[in-house]
TrEMBL record, chain A:
Name this protein carries in UniProt: Ubiquitin-conjugating enzyme E2 2
Origin organism lineage: Eukaryota, Fungi, Dikarya, Ascomycota, Pezizomycotina
Pfam family, one: UQ_con
E.C. code: 2.3.2.23
TM ranges: none
Organism: Dactylellina haptotyla (strain CBS 200.50)
Keyword check for ATP-binding: yes
Automatic annotation (TrEMBL), chain B:
PANTHER family given in the database record: UBIQUITIN THIOESTERASE OTUBAIN-LIKE, UBIQUITIN THIOLESTERASE PROTEIN OTUB
Stated name of the protein: ubiquitinyl hydrolase 1
One cellular component term from this protein's GO annotations in UniProt: nucleus
Annotated coiled-coil segments of the chain: none
EC number, UniProt record: 3.4.19.12
Highest rank taxon of the organism: Eukaryota
OTU domain sequence ranges: 71-285
Record flagged with keyword DNA damage: no
Reaction(s) catalysed by this chain's protein: Thiol-dependent hydrolysis of ester, thioester, amide, peptide and isopeptide bonds formed by the C-terminal Gly of ubiquitin (a 76-residue protein attached to proteins as an intracellular targeting signal)
GO molecular function, one term: ubiquitin binding
Keywords attached to this entry: Hydrolase, Protease, Thiol protease, Ubl conjugation pathway
GO biological process assignments: protein K48-linked deubiquitination; proteolysis
Residue ranges of the TM segments: none
């Protein structure tokens, strides 16, 4: 229980920080006051990408081990991206525990450690949207399409983005 | 008949192969206990000798040479954090052992002020404050606990380090401190790594569960131990050709040669035992309560009821297969009333009934003779590893006439 109290205190601190120092394009908070271990997030599609204009919703799920272990992030809207599994789960190195790094070659500062935060995760996801890593195997079809048929990929992505804002 | 002898031979051959495989396994792949306590209780280093009794001769030689010099041994859970945990635990243990409230207070102030390093490299206070708080809490606890007047009573530190949250928060704090230190003093470390400091600290230092490497130990010693006047040494137990463990001492290289008396240094030295991939702690003779009068068995037995719970942690499952119960008893000379209810844990009913006769005398313990410490009843049971029914039976140790 003690470990959980620490996790809750940390999450409360992060939430307070996100509200007080709002970062553009990122919104996150617990779904309900009852359960601090599941958060709802909105990530704005980065400008000058096919994701622009979309507001992509996702859930962040924390474990009792947080922040020793990273949370998991899963998109709850339709999205096509090489680093997002078809079920919406995001696969980037900041979300993987050490030793389980899917893309060892990714930028060093993006690994998970207890000094990372929800804000850092969401910012990493934002840059992942802008710059897919097509060598990741999370969504092979998307990777292939991104490499071989960029036009079609971008069209589908733009559709997804429009759908997220109800167009 | 020919067939029978062939099959006998085959069986013998298989057995030898099996034995060789066991030997190989003991020597090459020491697996630290991943389910044991995060930080174990103090036990006799004879346990190490027993552990390697049937292993590669290099290990037999080294562990046999170890126990007369290093009386005690403490396990650290092999969960990928053992090096960090061993160093963190050892730091608090050494501080407590000073028995110097003022000194601990100074360390507390120093560690609080070092938060400025973390700020300097851009770590947000709201993300690290919880970890720092746990370190400060434990420093407060030990400086205020009754143990401060009985510095060899490690209870407050052992208890704190066996609470997951406290233990992990403290090592996380130290990791962040080391990370900040590396970034602020790259010149001192850069030459030793292949990647950049940035990459090294984010992949090797900061993440939880990543084993500490030599440079990490060096950096942590530089941050935590040397400024406090504490020394860290590592004894390497490996297959290198020598008769004893190789010892490496981390000292303040910039300081003039010390004139401190040896006893004083022993009181301020943390000793780690390194086996490839794993750190535990060892204690040299004289590190722990050098002038303590040996506690007689009966006195310790009286303490057993209160301390019995702690022992289940101390012995773990490993110990139930160990014949050197005498070694545990002699370790009690140092831990005093720590309690060691073997009867509860590993040898149900076997020792309890005979403690009066077999273990009553302090003399017998001081002689350290194995035979004196275990009883006939125990000796002839399968708990004894030199008994042929024991799972770890070693034929060369079996002498049924005894």
């Amino acid at each position: 229980m003690a470990a959980k109290a620490r996790t809750l205190r940390r999450l409360l601190g992060e939430y307070r920080e996100l509200i007080n120092n709002e970062t553009e394009g990122i919104y996150a908070g617990p779904i309900s006051e009852e359960d601090w271990m599941v958060w709802e997030c909105l990530i704005a599609g980065p400008p000058d990408t096919p994701f622009e204009g979309g507001m992509f919703s996702a859930t962040l799920t924390f474990t009792d081990d947080y922040p020793l272990s990273p949370p998991t992030l899963k998109f709850t809207c339709d999205i096509l991206h090489p680093n997002v599994y078809p079920d919406g789960t995001v696969c980037i190195s900041i979300l993987h525990p050490p030793g389980d790094d899917p893309n060892m070659y990714e930028h060093a500062s993006e690994r998970w450690s207890p000094i990372q935060s929800v804000e850092k995760v969401l910012l990493s996801v934002m840059s992942m949207l802008a710059e897919p890593n097509d060598e990741s195997g999370a969504n092979v079809d998307a990777s292939k399409m991104f490499r071989e048929n960029r036009e079609r990929y971008e069209k589908i992505v733009r559709n997804c983005a429009r759908k997220t804002v109800g167009l | 008949m020919a067939e029978t002898s062939a099959s006998v031979e085959e069986r013998a051959g298989m057995k030898t192969a099996q034995e060789l495989a066991d030997l190989e396994k003991l020597s090459a792949t020491y697996e630290p206990d991943v389910n044991g306590p995060l930080v174990g209780q103090l036990q006799s280093s004879k346990i190490l000798e027993a552990e390697y009794a049937g292993a590669d001769p290099v290990y037999v030689r080294k562990t046999a040479a170890l126990s007369p010099k290093y009386s005690n041994y403490r396990t650290i859970r092999g969960d990928g954090n053992c090096g960090w945990r061993a160093l963190a635990f050892g730091y608090f243990e050494l501080l407590l052992r000073t028995g110097d409230e003022k000194f601990i207070q100074n360390e507390m102030d120093r560690l609080k002020s070092l938060c400025s390093w973390m700020n300097e490299v851009g770590m947000s206070e709201y993300l690290y404050e919880d970890f720092v708080e746990e370190t400060i809490e434990l420093l407060k606890t030990i400086s205020q606990s009754p143990a401060i007047d009985n510095p060899y009573d490690d209870t407050p530190v052992v208890e704190a380090f066996n609470r997951d949250d406290a233990s992990n928060a403290i090592i996380t704090h130290l990791k962040l401190l080391v990370s900040a230190h590396l970034r602020l003093h790259p010149d001192a470390y850069e030459a030793f790594i292949e990647t950049s400091i940035e990459d090294y600290r984010s992949s090797q230092i900061e993440p939880y569960g990543v084993q500490i490497d030599h440079l990490g130990v060096k950096a942590l010693v530089d941050v935590l131990f040397i400024p406090a006047g504490l020394v860290v040494e590592i004894s390497y137990l490996d297959r290198s050709e020598s008769d004893e463990v190789n010892v490496h001492k981390f000292e303040d290289e910039s300081a003039p040669p010390k004139v401190t008396p040896a006893e004083d240094e022993a009181q301020k030295t943390l000793r780690m035992l390194y086996r490839p991939g794993h750190y535990d702690l060892i204690y040299k003779n004289g590190d722990l309560a050098p002038a303590r009068i040996p506690v007689s068995y009966s006195a310790t037995a009286a303490a057993t009821t209160e301390g019995g719970v702690r022992v289940s942690m101390m012995l773990g499952t490993e110990y139930t297969r160990n014949p050197f119960c005498s070694s545990v008893f002699s370790s009690q000379v140092f831990t005093g009333g720590g309690g060691f209810d073997l009867c509860e844990e590993g040898y149900p009913g076997l020792l309890r009934g005979s403690t009066g006769s077999g273990l009553g005398s302090t003399d017998a313990m001081n002689k350290g003779k194995i035979d004196d410490a275990y009883t006939k009843l125990f000796k002839h049971s399968h708990y004894n590893t030199s008994h042929y029914q024991n799972v770890n039976f070693q034929p060369e140790m079996w002498s049924p006439q005894d």
